Automatic annotation (TrEMBL), chain A:
UniProt function note: Allows the formation of correctly charged Gln-tRNA(Gln) through the transamidation of misacylated Glu-tRNA(Gln) in the mitochondria. The reaction takes place in the presence of glutamine and ATP through an activated gamma-phospho-Glu-tRNA(Gln).
Repeat keyword on record: no
Annotated segments matching region Disordered: 482-532
GO CC terms: glutamyl-tRNA(Gln) amidotransferase complex; mitochondrion
Gene Ontology MF: a single term: ATP binding
Entry superkingdom: Eukaryota
The name this protein goes by in its record: Glutamyl-tRNA(Gln) amidotransferase subunit B, mitochondrial
Low complexity compositional bias, start-end: 482-494, 507-529
Catalytic activity: L-glutamyl-tRNA(Gln) + L-glutamine + ATP + H2O = L-glutaminyl-tRNA(Gln) + L-glutamate + ADP + phosphate + H(+)
NCBIfam families named among the record's database cross-references: gatB, PRK05477.1-2
Subcellular location: Mitochondrion
Automatic annotation (TrEMBL), chain B:
Active site positions: K68 (charge relay system), S145 (charge relay system), S169 (acyl-ester intermediate)
Family: Belongs to the amidase family. GatA subfamily.
Localization in the cell: Mitochondrion
Cited Pfam families: Amidase (PF01425)
GO molecular function per UniProt: ATP binding; glutaminyl-tRNA synthase (glutamine-hydrolyzing) activity
Function: Allows the formation of correctly charged Gln-tRNA(Gln) through the transamidation of misacylated Glu-tRNA(Gln) in the mitochondria. The reaction takes place in the presence of glutamine and ATP through an activated gamma-phospho-Glu-tRNA(Gln).
Subunit structure: Subunit of the heterotrimeric GatCAB amidotransferase (AdT) complex, composed of A, B and C subunits.
The name this protein goes by in its record: Glutamyl-tRNA(Gln) amidotransferase subunit A, mitochondrial
Ranges of residues in domain Amidase: 54-501
Annotated source species: Crepidotus variabilis
Keyword rRNA-binding on entry: no
Presence of keyword Nucleotide-binding: yes
Reactions it catalyzes: L-glutamyl-tRNA(Gln) + L-glutamine + ATP + H2O = L-glutaminyl-tRNA(Gln) + L-glutamate + ADP + phosphate + H(+)
Lineage of the species this protein comes from: Eukaryota, Fungi, Dikarya, Basidiomycota, Agaricomycotina
InterPro entries recorded: Amidase (IPR000120), Amidase_CS (IPR020556), Amidase_dom (IPR023631), AS_sf (IPR036928), GatA (IPR004412)
């Protein structure tokens, strides 16, 4: 337990490997750029890495989630939060790392006010996972493999903000002790753009795994970048580290500036190598600046943490995590296409769904986040309606669901400046709307009104009641006994249920689904007989109130005018009428009268 | 109000006023029992002058227990005998203090100690040295670092006391003061009770018990022996049970007389510094044990001579880490830097507070520890010391008949080989009797104060249970020094705490 073999920290001799062949870059012809990235990703755990306190969001009141341990009160001890370990293991497996069956914690010492105990607990010598890889997809080029050197668990520090007016530092301990994963890449990147793709790919993996928000702007993902340049064919140059880059854009700009700076140095100082140093990045000038040179590098006096024993990870635990590993974005897409082959014709909508899904809020401790894909799947499988499963034989047409979800629900949310994460409709509520449309209890137009209404007035009310309250229920509908008794609408039980779908249904815009196809074929037959007397009355009203339009039609000058008259009827019926049927009735009324005239 | 109710109420009132009187007189008694003797002994640094009267139930009901000042209490300050923490009051009670209270004990006050537990004579304290109560006319050291706890028990100021033992800090003062001092197995109770103990060297720190006899020490130990899932290093219940089961099987096979108990005498525990006044009584104890039917086995623990060096490197390194938080900003008294200080260098801000807040001994150890952890020295000092520590553990594992359930090594089948043959080890607790306080200036100048720990440190490094039991009055080879207490230590394999205490009780009975 007390014996361990050590490698010197930050081994300075870097054996050069040529995993990548030289490729000319017009910005710096004749020079090779080598980049490695250390990423700190905040674990999306409910509690901190070594204490019981909750993790915080930026919205939390300062110093509100602080336990005595986080504040380093004398006598407090750390205890590993196994949820954090599981999240890190998920990440490690997603990055194809070898997980250490025994890893150890070490203390890294430095005096700073954001570090209450005077040391950070990290995994310097025996990290949780090693030797992984991340494959980068580059458009129109073969993918690039970036080797992951190691993943280690460590504590985040407190947040220190300097008030220049009072000349004081303010410390917020909310962040202190939050779990971080440090993900270290090998120096396998060769340009600022590749570095950007690396970070974005890593971000996507972290989010897909549900292990981190990966949000650079909010600081849940932070990057330190190691950059060196060398002349083509020569061994790598001395690297400089640029610390605390908090956006992909800044990171790429920092690398670009650093390449030029090092290139200039080497050209003006032939025979010398770039002095090893740590640099910062100025977000206003887009330049890197000197922080400290190698000689000033602090001695962190790493020491094995005597309170935390070895972190032992059993093979069965690794296997459990591997078995329940969430799908990566590409795997997820393939999975959905396999499961719902009909979506192959709807790949654009599917990509919209996946994109929206990727912006979902990540659940705590790797719990399933209620993303758009899950919402979609619940609806497709009819899992929202356990009590009504018998009615719908527990599945819905995926194309129909996808259309309504991506066009209407997301469209309405976007129109109100909202994202899917703020969607107030439960799958049950939205599923009801879909079923009302499908059963032709309401028209597509009504459904859109209903959707808009329910989004604007969020409540737990079910869609049928809301539709009834708003008089949206199609007068021709008879299929639901609960609807036929509404007093405002005359009972239409004597009418035959139409066999087709409402015109306004966006799903009719495509022809990929057999359901839709059948609706089109059946709609070719006239169906004016289905129009209830109420709507018939609206049609007569339209003809009498829009004499000019009717006249235009009768003379056959413009067919487009018909839509205006249909619109009048639809408005009168508050969207409840079946537009195709109305059109039929109107045509009949108008042209028949023309024939009569003749 | 109906008459019987009135009568009842009156009765209750009378009863409660009687209780209040009892409470008052208890307090008075406590004051007398504590305040007056403390003026000379200086065992207590803070007294709970109106302690909650102890419960009538619980396994420690009615006991007055003192707590070392590096153990957090929310009602009394926790100064660690340091200027750094002179005003510090913890927001929580340490687990061991909670357990004392919930078991019905009264916490009577906080006891003096060496600063942050660093010292062997209890002379490095902002509250001044503890005077050994055995004879205050000739002021002698009470031993350290839990000197206040040992002295409080020895002076009869409390029934028992909690101390902490990092390298002998419970056993050494117990030996000097003539009381029982028990350090449990590391990770058994020690670590669970250690939540709330201000860290000195976590890989060694244990909460120990000081008591007037073995029976009361055992009682307190049992009360603290509850698994606390908060403690990361507490031994998991299954390991504890395995070890307990093994130990109790051996214990029952020995019977009440403990005939056939195999006692190892480690030959390396008789260094040249060991004084004659200790060796002679120790020999007599061995003879007595033999007469009782014990089997005395000479054993060798060859790495012992490296133990002290290993201990001081490791403990100092951990101390330098643990004490980093006392910088005058996070914790500790803040010393305003002088106007000429360059405040752009962070270290300058901290340095002033740390230079003034820490005593000389603490500073010395932190410097040593910081050096041992520096990149250049780490391999040769810290890692080397860890290797030595493992050798010392291996030494012990070779001689004990029982396997070490707590070690990472796979436990062997426990077969009774020639080498692995003893139930417990026996050795003197200290190289001498309590040293005089007046010569401490001189003692401090050389390394001999560190030699005080030479016999206690190995068990700490190996995490083994050890108890120091006072010997009775023996004829001494050195004339005129017969009176001062001598302690003898019993050390057992990890998890054999009850066996060790049982042997302690046997020694106690011999002394009577």
């Amino acid at each position: 337990m007390f014996l361990r073999r050590l490698r010197p920290p930050h081994c300075s001799v870097r054996a050069f490997h040529d995993v990548r062949s030289y490729k000319e870059d017009t910005r710096w012809p004749g020079w090779q750029v080598i980049v490695g990235i250390e990423t700190h990703a905040q674990l999306k755990s409910r509690r901190k890495l070594f204490s019981e306190s909750l993790t915080s969001s930026l919205a939390d009141k300062i110093n509100s989630n602080v336990s005595p341990f986080d504040a380093a009160f004398p006598g407090t001890l750390p205890k590993v939060n196994s949820k954090c370990v599981d999240l890190a293991l998920r990440t490690a497996l997603a990055l194809k790392c070898q997980v250490a069956s025994r890893s150890l914690f070490d203390r890294k010492h430095y005096f700073y006010s954001d570090l209450a105990s005077g040391y950070q607990i990290t995994q310097q010598y025996a990290p949780l996972a090693k030797n992984g890889e991340l494959e980068l997809e580059i458009p129109n080029l073969p993918p690039i493999k970036v080797r992951i050197k190691q993943i280690q668990l460590e504590q985040d520090t407190a947040k220190s903000t300097f008030n220049s007016r009072t000349q004081t530092s303010n410390i917020d301990l909310n962040r202190a002790g939050t779990g971080l994963m440090e993900i270290v890449s090998e120096p396998d990147l060769r340009s600022p753009e590749e570095a950007g793709i690396y970070v974005r790919s890593l971000q996507a993996i972290l989010r897909a795994m549900g292990t981190s928000d990966g949000n650079m702007e909010q600081g849940s993902l932070r990057c330190d970048v190691n950059v060196s340049v060398n002349k083509k064919g020569e061994p790598p140059g001395t690297r400089c580290e640029i610390k605390n880059l908090n956006s992909v854009k800044f990171m790429m700009a920092a690398i670009t500036h650093e390449v030029h700076r090092q290139q200039d140095f080497l050209q003006t100082n032939p025979g010398l190598s770039v002095p090893q140093e740590t640099r910062g990045f100025n977000e206003n000038t887009f330049e890197t600046f000197h922080l400290r040179s190698k000689e000033d590098a602090p001695d962190y006096r790493y020491m094995p943490d005597p309170n935390l024993g070895a972190l032992v990870v059993s093979q069965s635990r690794i296997q459990d995590i591997r078995d329940t590993l969430p799908l990566l974005p590409a795997q997820r897409r393939a999975y959905l296409l396999r499961k719902y082959p009909a979506l192959q014709m709807k790949e654009q909508s599917l990509d919209v769904l996946l994109k929206v899904d990727n912006t979902r809020d990540i659940g705590f401790d790797g719990e399933d986040a209620r993303g758009a894909v899950e919402y979609f799947e619940v609806l497709c499988q009819g899992q929202d309606i356990p009590s009504r499963r018998d009615v719908h034989a527990n599945t819905r047409d995926p194309v129909f669901v996808l259309n309504w979800l991506t066009h209407d629900l997301l469209g309405q949310l976007a129109a109100h400046g909202q994202t899917f994460s703020s969607n107030p409709l439960t799958p049950y509520q939205f599923g009801e709307i879909l079923d009302l449309v499908k059963d032709r209890q309401i028209t597509g137009t009504s459904a859109k009104y209903l959707l808009r209404y329910m989004l604007a007035n969020p409540s737990g009310d079910n869609a049928i009641d809301t539709a009834t309250k708003l008089d949206f229920i199609n007068p021709v509908s008879v299929s639901s006994s609960s609807l036929s008794s509404t007093s405002t609408l005359p009972s239409s039980s004597s009418h035959e249920v139409p066999s087709d779908l409402a015109l306004e249904d966006p799903s009719t815009q495509n022809t990929s689904s057999s359901v839709i196809n059948s609706s089109f074929t059946s709609s070719s037959a006239p169906r004016t007989s289905n129009v209830p007397p109420e709507v018939q009355a609206f049609c007569h009203q339209a003809i009498s109130e829009l004499p000019n339009e009717v006249e235009v039609l009768r003379t056959g000058k413009s067919k487009g005018v018909l839509n205006k008259i249909v619109g009048f009827v639809m408005k009168k019926s508050r969207g409840r009428a079946d537009a195709i049927a109305v059109k039929g009735v109107l045509e009949k009324l108008i042209y028949d009268s023309v024939r009569d005239d003749q | 109000m109906r008459p019987n109710v009135v009568a009842q109420t009156r009765y209750i009132r009378r009863l409660s006023s009687r209780r209040a009187q009892a409470h008052y007189s208890t307090q008075q008694a406590l004051r007398q029992q504590l305040v007056e003797p403390n003026a000379t002994v200086n065992a207590f640094v803070n007294l709970a002058l109106s302690p909650k009267i102890s419960q009538q139930t619980g396994r420690l009901a009615g006991l007055n227990i003192a707590v070392k000042d590096n153990i957090a209490t929310k009602e009394l300050p926790t100064t660690c005998s340091s200027a750094m923490l002179k005003d510090f009051v913890s927001p929580f009670d340490a687990t061991c203090v909670q357990l004392l209270k919930s078991s019905g004990a009264t916490v009577v006050g906080k006891t003096n100690c060496d600063e942050f537990g660093m010292g062997s004579l209890n002379i490095h304290s902002i509250h001044g040295p503890v005077v050994n109560p055995f004879d205050t006319t000739d002021p002698r050291s009470a031993g350290g670092s839990s000197g206040g706890s040992a002295a409080a028990v020895a002076a009869g100021m409390c029934d028992a006391a909690l101390g902490t033992d990092t390298g002998g800090s419970v056993r050494l003062p117990a030996s000097y003061c003539g009381v029982v001092g028990f350090k449990p197995s590391y990770g058994l109770i020690s670590r669970q009770a250690v939540w709330g103990v201000v860290s000195y060297a976590d890989s060694l720190d244990c909460v120990g018990v000081l008591g007037s006899d073995v029976a009361i020490s055992l009682r307190v130990f049992e009360a603290l022996c509850e698994y606390d899932p908060r403690d990361p290093t507490a031994a998991p219940p299954e390991i504890r049970e395995d070890a307990f089961a093994h130990a109790s099987t051996r214990l029952s096979s020995l019977g009440s007389e403990m005939t056939g108990l195999r006692i190892g005498i480690p030959q390396e525990y008789f260094p040249k510094e060991l004084s004659q006044e200790v060796i002679e009584p120790f020999r007599q104890v061995i003879l007595q044990l033999k007469e009782q039917g014990a089997i005395i086995v000479p054993v060798s623990l060859p790495s012992t001579s490296y133990a002290l060096s290993s201990y001081y490197v490791l403990a100092s390194a951990e101390a330098s880490s643990n004490l980093a938080r006392y910088d005058g900003i996070q914790y500790g008294s803040y010393v305003r830097p002088s106007p000429s200080t360059d405040l752009s260098i962070t270290a300058n801000v901290y340095a002033q507070s740390r230079s003034q807040g820490f005593g000389a001994e603490v500073q010395k150890r932190m410097l040593l520890g910081t050096y041992a952890l520096s990149a250049d020295a780490f391999d040769n000092y810290f890692l080397q010391a860890q290797r030595v520590r493992q050798m010392i553990k291996n030494d012990f594992d070779r001689v004990f008949s029982m396997s070490n359930y707590f070690s990472d090594a796979v436990p062997s089948d426990g077969s009774f080989t020639a080498a692995r043959q003893v139930d417990v080890l026996l050795h003197p607790s200290a190289i001498r009797t309590a040293p005089s306080l007046s010569i401490n200036e001189k003692v401090e100048a050389d390394l001999s104060s560190y030699v005080q720990d030479v016999l206690t440190v190995p068990a700490s490094l190996a995490g083994l249970p050890a108890v120091s039991v006072p010997l009775g009055k023996y004829e001494s080879a050195v004339k005129g020094d017969t009176r001062w207490p001598i302690g003898v230590s019993v050390v057992g394999q990890w998890g054999t705490d009850r066996l060790v205490l049982k042997v302690g009780r046997l020694l106690e009975s011999l002394a009577k």
